[in-house]
């Protein structure tokens, strides 16, 4: 990501014009002031929007930072807040989920039907020995059963651990072992770009290496014959036998609702642990402020439920608000590059929440495709997951929203639980949008941009984005690793949360998100760690050492570039290159497919043995190597890498 300095920013404004539509304003300012005057009281007010079995005694216990306890003493249940609260109201028979797949098949579940299945499945889990506090792995595609499974876990106090269904058997096994789960919930398979991916087979491959697994529950979606092992049970069979009401557990506000593994700067993915009361309070509030949910909305979030956006804004937030959501199992471009627009027209979508990667892909296919659909139902357009370039923002605004829909560029992370920086269309009045800016932190969030020493930087200067005060949606800790939680997020700048992102604010105070400042990549919006990928390469028999970097990419945002040193008895070849690509797809998943692989004899390392990634990045992006290289162990490594890059560039493509 290039760094827009103040001049660049003014050019962006000039090019696109300051687009003015109704956005957050007076009410927003008022709420922000209220939040900053008495933060705890403010969040206490927000928590009152949830249903509690028992009120909390204290809004925040921050006696032992950075371990925050929100709404201490309060008791609640997530499934009650998403379902039970609606079934005696007019929402009972409203569609909760409209699901469609890439073949155009659809299914609708009303709030009552969802409630019914969640109760039944919660009882089924109990029958299979799952208790409050147990972890349950969910390895399902984006189908209604994934929501049923998550809410059923929350009903009985089990902590769900959703593993993205595009991850490999190894990635699944690593996560299930770390979470020490007794059960995996999966399906016979999922269709992706017309191909049937046999998920159950991947689970079968993983299970022998997960000693804690007692059962695998399988959703049957096709008439294909699949092998069922002794520990396997069918979803429909266990549901059929289960009682139709399950008493919800009265859980502490700090009860762990879920673990979601995400990539960081070390080789092993981190288990981000979220609470119940704080997390739900934060989602309820941010969803209302940002999306301004209306009772007539059809909310279409295109994320996979395996990522945090799916957890927060496809499961918990819309259901708590009684909104109808559209759930799509498929890719944006298959069978034609028109899927999102066709879905908007067919279902009358009012709010679309998607990624810059998907928009860049659609932009490439031109305006005639979206223009051939009736998109007039749309009232709000959102993006998430990566920085949005101003030209993509402008295309979204003009071609999709016909200049009638505000754009909300929402910045947040798996760790933050919910949206942290975004325009708040639910808090009315008039603030100009700026293409490519997330605008401001939401009420109650105290964000700042600081230099290496933790001092605030001047407007227009790039710095590290930090959050200065705890907020209810924040992660409680990293699963089984309190120390890493402390070190990763709260040590870099003492006492404040370090996001790992670069940002700047302009003279109007708008925030501009500028990508990661650490070794985390965002490839097509998916979060991957460079060290995680390096470990995956080194696990192949031919690789002695690996260094990963990325290059900006027009379509995916970033692509993966690998520099590898082979073991002495291996020679580089196209066949080996292909074998390594397959290896990465099998050990991590297809999302980690490298764009380019270079075989080299040396890597640029410091005298203390650390790879100087900055240099790799400069070479891989065709830039001059600048800055201090005095700590480099062997200067010739730069030349060698550059040679390898130049020589093999063509062959690689
Ligand atoms: C990036 C996704 C720019 C950022 C919800 C962050 C963004 C990482 C934006 C978290 C945005 C997310 N503009 N960058 N609007 N939203 N990011 O955990 O680098 O998958 O740290 O959560 O995505 O990715 P994660």
In brief:
The protein has 653 residues and is of the alpha/beta class.
Structural commentary:
The structure is a single chain. This protein is of the alpha/beta class and 653 residues long. Among the domains are: 108-249, Rossmann fold (3-Layer(aba) Sandwich); 519-646, GMP Synthetase, Chain A, domain 3 (2-Layer Sandwich). The strands form 8 sheets. It has an 8-stranded mixed beta sheet, sandwiched between helices. It has a 7-stranded mixed beta sheet with strand order 5-4-17-16-18-19-20, with helices on both faces. A 4-stranded antiparallel beta sheet has the order 21-22-24-25. The longest helix is centred in the N-terminal third of the chain and has 17 residues, at 111-127. 5'-O-[(S)-ethoxy(hydroxy)phosphoryl]adenosine binds at residues 262, 307-309, 384-387, 409-414, 438, 499-501, 513, 515-516, 522, 527.
What are its keywords?
single chain; 653 residues; alpha/beta; Rossmann fold; GMP Synthetase, Chain A, domain 3; 8-stranded mixed sheet; 7-stranded mixed sheet; 20 helices; 30 strands; 22% strand; globular; disordered N terminus; binds 5'-O-[(S)-ethoxy(hydroxy)phosphoryl]adenosine
